[in-house]
Specification:
The complex is a heterodimer of chains A (435) and B (219).
Chain A (H helix, E strand, L loop, with lengths): L10 H11 L2 H9 L11 H5 L8 H14 L6 H13 L17 H14 L5 H13 L7 H16 L16 E4 L3 H4 L2 H13 L4 E2 L10 H5 L2 H18 L3 E4 L3 H14 L10 E4 H11 L12 E3 L12 H11 L30 H7 L1 H10 L3 E3 L3 H13 L5 E3 L1 H8 L9 H7 L1
Parallel strand pairs in A: 1-2, 1-3, 3-4, 5-6, 6-7
Chain B lengths: L1 H8 L1 H28 L1 H5 L3 H9 L8 H5 L1 H20 L1 H11 L8 H24 L1 H4 L4 H21 L5 H18 L7 H20 L5
The chains are: A mainly alpha (435), B mainly alpha (219).
């Protein structure tokens, strides 16, 4: 961002971008917002910051995209700098406000459009910008090569075979039912996530594969404002799935991956009907299926009180809040829901690119996360389960910041911990032992 | 005075109706054209039932979580809109004019009810005006035009009320009533008041987008 500051603003380019976005929806939204202020109470930034009126969603879009249109794109760098603060620092595009607006104005869509304008002038958070080159050059946000991935998978397959006999992590297996796409954090920092997924799939006798390319289901260009790259990222995933002839694309426990692959990605990638070329399934759906069909059985339920963090992009923006809750009921004796919950749940404060935006935004993230911390505290839960890496990180940080005394967990971790390993999958040593 | 009255309730009124209805049609037609080209997402996920639910929940009092969060405002907001539409449409004096001009009119409210509803409407408008001033999250958004539009919306009712009760110079008041009503009708298609029609489209869209695609209730 710093270098870009020296470049003069290309108002013509901005004007073109604004024109391209100037559809009936944005035009209508900008012209009929009646400034009633009802959206304010829906926003956790507003609630967590002593109801600062500048944090109401209407104020945010009015002073960014609204102002860009009002000035017909003739804006300066100082204005864009102010927008930067609002667009990335004060909104996670969680879409909660669109449920609270009498006109149903989709403010997150306008914030995203304004992010694209800023991006066109080289203004985007450093933490996100860094990942873009990796996506461009290697095809994933952390620049992990196919060989590295392969090695990690082999290593994890060996490790996990100690727990589940006959376990494999198939790579590029043609005609598998599911192509399992992951978050690069998993091979890079949490390889056990891969092992755990493999254990669950093996016990469920699933037909699955990890692709050697197009395996990164995350889409940070979508949040950085680089729509062309966002389309490329999602397209390489679809293309790989078509090439392998799989039935469906399965996503790891990641929130925004679902938003990207199932909802917004098809538009970025230029599919005119807005639908992905093959079905996209989130882990929450599949785990729910396993548990309700009995393909995965639970040996003992968790006894500590548990709450479920609805990731915005899995629940409100993905429609899977009931599946998430049913899973927890299979796993835990004492489930305590947050309030509000389901599609009305608050964003944890880590979404919309916030976690990868890094230290520059950490302080604000902790302040705005107060709403979530209080929600969790009120449940009295000791374990917070969430099927999203960003929620996981944010709630772990909130745990420290607000002394919540909780343990954060993904679904995989818990399922692996307490599922029944049928005899045929028990490792030999253990089998002998039990004889 | 009489000549002016005849002009305002004759040719000027016709022009007003033409601008009002024509303006709304033009705005809709323009947006429709634009949407065919740039808002594929509107058409890709259409669902009649989600559109209906998304609209109806915001037409009934406290029909949405958002409206229930601010129950007093919601009540005022609801009553304001009901009076705004109801009083002019069902006012006996207006219906007599319709009868005279076209030979038919709508069912009419008893005058005393129309009177009470007008007072309630003016009360609601004052409440909304004050709310804009005192609630910080509303004040920061409000522009001079927002206050103006609220006043413009209320003036036909204030002048109509005064004229009916023969307060102040009756003829002037009646003329002002007609003029303000005509100004309001002309402003509607070209301002945020266009929501009288556009409301249904934006609500339908969010119904498709959140409800149809995801099952999330936008209310």
């Amino acid at each position: 961002m710093e270098n870009a500051n020296e470049r003069p603003v290309d108002t013509k380019e901005i004007r073109e971008l604004l024109d391209a976005n100037d559809g009936a929806r944005i035009r209508t939204w900008l012209s009929i917002c009646s400034r009633c202020g009802l959206c304010a109470e829906s926003c956790f930034f507003y609630l967590a910051n002593n109801k600062d009126p500048r944090l109401s969603p209407a104020y945010k879009f009015k002073n960014t995209l609204g102002e860009m249109y009002r000035r017909k794109g003739k804006v300066d760098r100082e204005f864009l700098r102010k927008c930067y603060d609002i667009l990335w620092g004060e909104c996670t595009t969680c879409k909660r406000c669109s449920l609270y607006c009498p006109f149903g104005i989709d403010i997150a869509t306008m914030i995203s459009a304004a992010r694209a304008v800023c991006y066109s002038q080289g203004i985007t958070p450093e933490g996100l910008a860094r990942t873009l080159d990796h996506y461009r050059e290697v095809g994933n946000q952390m620049g992990i090569s196919s060989e590295e991935l392969r090695d990690t998978c082999e290593w994890m397959a060996e490790e996990a075979a100690d727990e589940v006999r006959g376990l494999e992590i198939p790579i590029d297996k043609k005609g598998a039912k599911y192509m399992y796409t992951i978050n690069p954090r998993e091979p890079k920092y949490y390889p056990l996530d891969l092992a755990m997924a493999a254990q669950i799939f093996t016990v469920a006798r699933e037909s699955w594969t990890i692709p050697s390319t197009g395996w990164d289901c995350t889409n940070l260009p979508m949040y950085a404002g680089d729509r062309a790259l966002a389309g490329q990222v999602v397209k390489s995933m679809y293309d790989k799935a078509l090439e392998l002839g799989v039935e469906k694309i399965l996503l790891t426990e990641c929130g925004h991956a679902f938003r990207s692959a199932a909802f917004e990605g098809p538009y970025f990638a230029g599919y005119p009907d807005g639908k992905p070329p093959l079905e996209v399934v989130h882990s929450v759906q599949l785990f729910y299926e396993y548990l309700s069909d009995g393909r995965i059985q639970i040996a003992r339920k968790l006894e500590e009180p548990v709450t479920y963090q609805d990731p915005c992009n899995v629940s409100r923006n993905g429609g899977l809040w009931e599946e998430g809750r049913r899973i927890i009921e299979y796993l835990a004796e004492d489930f305590r829901d947050m309030s509000p919950n389901r599609e009305h749940n608050h964003c944890c404060g880590g979404g919309g690119g916030y976690i990868p935006m890094g230290p520059e935004f950490k302080r604000r993230r902790m302040i705005s996360g107060r709403v979530k911390a209080e929600q969790i505290k009120a449940t009295g839960a000791k374990i917070v389960i969430t099927p999203c890496h960003n929620c996981y990180d944010q709630i772990s940080d909130l745990n420290e910041e607000y002394n919540l005394g909780i343990k954060v967990s993904s679904l995989k971790e818990i399922i692996c911990d307490i599922m029944v390993i049928p005899d045929e999958f028990k490792p030999e040593s253990q089998e002998k032992h039990s004889d | 005075m009489d000549g002016l009255y005849v002009f305002l309730t004759g040719p000027a009124l016709w022009i007003t109706f033409i601008i009002f209805i024509g303006g709304l049609i033009l705005r809709l037609a323009y947006l429709f054209g634009l949407s065919r080209e740039r808002d594929r997402v509107f058409y890709n996920h259409m669902s009649f039932s989600w559109a209906m639910k998304s609209i109806l929940h915001w037409l009934i009092p406290w029909g949405s979580v958002s409206l229930r969060l601010q129950p007093v405002f919601s009540l005022v907001f609801f009553v304001f809109h009901v009076c705004l539409l109801g009083v002019p449409l069902f006012l006996l004096a207006h219906n007599m004019l319709w009868e005279e001009a076209f030979g038919f009119g709508l069912w009419s409210l008893p005058d005393v009810w129309a009177d009470i509803l007008t007072v309630i409407l003016i009360g609601c408008a004052i409440f909304l005006f004050v709310r804009r001033l005192v609630r910080l999250e509303v004040r920061i958004l409000t522009t001079l035009w927002d206050y103006t539009v609220l006043v413009l919306t209320t003036l036909p009712f204030v002048t109509g009320f005064l004229a009916y009760h023969q307060q102040g110079p009756y003829e002037v008041m009646l003329l002002l009533h007609v003029v303000f009503a005509e100004i309001l009708l002309i402003v509607i298609p070209f301002s945020k008041l266009g929501h009288i029609i556009l409301f249904f489209f934006t609500r339908a869209f969010i119904g498709f987008e959140m409800g149809g695609r995801r099952g999330a209730r936008p209310w």
